[in-house]
Amino acid sequence: MESCLTAADVFPVLVWENILNHLPAKDLCEVSLVCHMLNEILNNNPYLLRDVRLSKWKIQTEGINAVFSTKFRNFRTKLPTDIPREHLQELFRHLQSRKKVINMIDMDHEDLVDVPADVLGEVFANTQILSLAFAQLTTDQLTAFFTEMSTKSPVVIEDLNLTGVDLTEVSPDILQAALITLRKINLVRSNLTTVQIQVFFTELSKKYSPVIEDITLSDNISEVSPDILANALVKIKKINLRDAKHTDMTTFFVNLDMISVVEDLDVSDNGLCDVPPDILAAGLATLRKINLHDAKLTTQQLTMLFTEITNKSHQVVEEINLSGADLSHVPSDALYALTKIKRLFINRKDLKEKQWIELFGQILASNPVVVEYMWLGYWDEPYPYKIQVARSDFVGQIKLAVTATFSNKYEEEGKRENQHVSDLLETVKLVVKEIKESY
Length: 439
Known about the structure:
The chain has about 450 residues and is α/β, with parallel strands linked by helices. The protein has a domain at about 340-439. The protein contains 17 helices and twelve strands. It has helices spanning about 5-10, 15-20, 25-35, 35-45, 55-60, 85-100, 115-125, 140-150, 170-180, 195-205, 225-235, 250-255, 275-285, 300-310, 355-365, 395-405, 405-430, and strands at about 100-105, 125-130, 160, 185, 215, 240, 265, 290, 320, 345, 375, 435. Helix 15 packs parallel to helix 17. The longest helix has 22 residues, at about 405-430. The protein is globular, with a radius of gyration of 28 Å. The termini are far apart.
C-alpha cells in the first residue's frame, strides 16, 4: 500500500512560500481550499494574497473590518465601489491603528468627505502608492494629509495621483512642502492657482537634485517665469506637459541641450511652433523618448530635428510619437532619421505616399534594422493623391476642366502608389518585430 505524501513531505515551508509567491491570486485561493498546510502558509504570509479582488457583497453585509481577520488582510488592490460611508470610516480607523506602511491605496472617484481629516491624513501619508483621481476631499482633509506628508520622517509616500482633485484652497507653502518629497506626481486638472504653481516651481528650481523623477501637469504653468520653469524641469527624468498651452518653453529646450537629466518628454497637444528650430532640435535630440503628437511643429522644425538625430554620433532617441505632425513637406532624405529609432508612432496621412515608399525603402535597406515597433494610425486613409476644389471664377473653371481631362491619369497613378505602399508594408513586416495598424 502506497503512503500518502503531504505538502511538507514534498518541500520545506520556505520552498512552498517561494512557489506560492509566483502564483496568481485565483490559484492561491484554490490552493488554500485543498491543502491544510498551504492554507496555513497563506494565513501566516498574507502578503501572498495581496492582489485578490475583494467581494463587494461580503463587505456590504459583514463590514470592511471583517476582511482584516482573514488571510486576505494584506490586500492592496482597489476596493470595490459603493462601499457605505460608515464602512469607509471603519476602514480608515483600522488602517490608522495598524501603524504599518501600506503598499497601495486606490480611492479614485470615492467620496471621502466623512472620513476624519486627521485619520485620513495619517493613513494616506503612510501609503507608498496612492491614487485619488477625482476623489472628493475637503480642504481640511487635504491640508492634514499634506502636513503629515511633509513632516513624516522618513517619507513613505512615493507616488501620488491627484488628477481632478481641487487643490485651490490649500496653502501654497503646505502644498509645495509636501509635493517636493514625492518621486512621482500627477497634478492634471487639479485647479492649482498661479501662486501655488509659482511657489512649487520656485522651490523645485532651488533643489540641486530633487526627489521628483516623474511629473504630470498642465495647470497654469504658463504663469511661471520661463527661467524658473526651465531650471526646475530639467532636473526631472520624466515630464508630461500635455496640453500646457501658451507656455514659453524656449529656455527649457535651451537647457535640455546643456544641463538636463530629462529622458522622457510629452509635449503633445501644445503649440511649439514659436520655438526656434535649432534650439528645439538640439534639445529634443538629447531625449530617449519624445511625444510630439499634434505639437504644431513647422516643417523647418521637423527637418532640423531629423537632421540633428541623424548627425548624432551616439543614438539617443529610442521612441518618438509624430502622429498628427504634418511631415508632408519634410525632405525624403531627412526621413532617414526615423530608421535609427526603435519605436515609431505615425499617422498614414502625416506622410505622402512617395514619402512612405522612401521611408519603407530606407528601413529595408538598413543593416541591421533598428526599428522594432511601428504604430501606424488611420492606415485605411492614405494621403489624398488629388484634391479638386470647385472654382467659381471663369479662369478657375477652365483650369479645373483641364485638370479633369487628366484626372484618370492622376487617379491611376495615385492608386498605384497606394498599392506600392501597401506592398512595401508587407515586406517591412518581415523585418520589423511588431507593426500595429490602427483604423
